[in-house]
């Protein structure tokens, strides 16, 4: 079977993995480790752990269909009551307990994967304790993913011109091995800087992807996000990705063509200063643009207890997976 590696974090990566799980491939995922907001802030500040939420989402996405539905529901359950536990998920707390029991977060991930009969390899991009640093066009610098993800009104209108991690972080050796062995690498979808590029700036990750002989696919976002990709076009996204990977690294770009969203849905995005991503990319000898309807018919609602902003127009797992599998 072919080796497919997915790189990212958050809901976008969960969506890709959930779809690809049904295909006869060897799956691995490299997950961002710089989240510093919401329940992850508690894990980092109070327990001294690396962020766990994206790991948990990937574990649930790749959990065997034989896994008891109740267990899967428990791992996604978010507490909405109590002053200290509101916003936390059962799955995160489960892994905190395992880390305490086994003395290793890496071991806790391994044991959780065994418990849920996960099909695939869950690989944190690094095990070093690090944070994102963004430098904006005004020269201002911001430390912490949560501040980049949800900036103030003034900063949110500025363009991010450089992203790095501080202190510098060493790549997880297993992540580098997965990149080297991959037949196909899928990057995205997800917040450009806080879910995607945050992986690429970890030491040696970007270089390893560039050198890899695997086909490289970028899944373009559906919507722009205030504070990260204000009024970005498809070309802007690709240019930023290749700024950190190297020019002409991406072989395929998956672009959604279904923009038939309800007025009420678009209004919700407008209230957050978000906009549709306009496609201005064309197929060339080097880059192939794969167009299609990749949107989910389901509009996501806010989960009780969740204090973070989430996208509610999302990609469809099955549609994305079918398009990706055809490119092997």
List the defining traits of the structure above:
three-stranded antiparallel beta sheet; alpha/beta; 328 residues; cytoplasm; LPPG:FO 2-phospho-L-lactate transferase activity; Gluconeogen_factor; CofD-like_dom_sf; Gluconeogenesis factor
Quick overview:
InterPro entries: CofD, CofD-like_dom_sf, Gluconeogen_factor. It contains 14 helices and ten strands.
* N-to-C series of helices and strands: EHEHHHHHEEEHHEHEHHEHEHEH
**Percent of residues in helical segments?**
25-40%
Total DSSP E strands = 10
Indicate the mean pLDDT: 92
CATH fold group: Rossmann fold
The CATH C-level name is: Alpha Beta
Count of the separate structural domains: 1
Number of helices: 14
The largest sheet is: 7 strands, parallel
What does this structure look like?
38% of the residues lie in helices and 16% in strands. The longest helix has 13 residues. Strands 3-2-1-7-8-9-10 form a seven-stranded parallel beta sheet, sandwiched between helices. The protein has a single domain, classed as 3-Layer(aba) Sandwich (Rossmann fold). The protein is α/β, with parallel strands linked by helices and 328 residues long. The termini are close together. The chain contains 14 helices and ten strands.
What secondary-structure arrangement, pairings included, does this model have?
Elements: E1 3-8, H1 10-20, E2 26-31, H2 38-47, H3 53-62, H4 69-76, H5 90-102, H6 105-115, E3 121-124, E4 131-136, E5 141-143, H7 145-149, H8 153-156, E6 160-166, H9 173-181, E7 184-187, H10 192-200, H11 205-211, E8 215-219, H12 234-245, E9 252-256, H13 263-270, E10 288-292, H14 317-325
Parallel strand pairs: 1-2, 1-7, 2-3, 7-8, 8-9, 9-10
Antiparallel strand pairs: 4-5, 4-6
Helix pairs in contact: 1-3, 1-14, 5-6, 9-11, 10-12
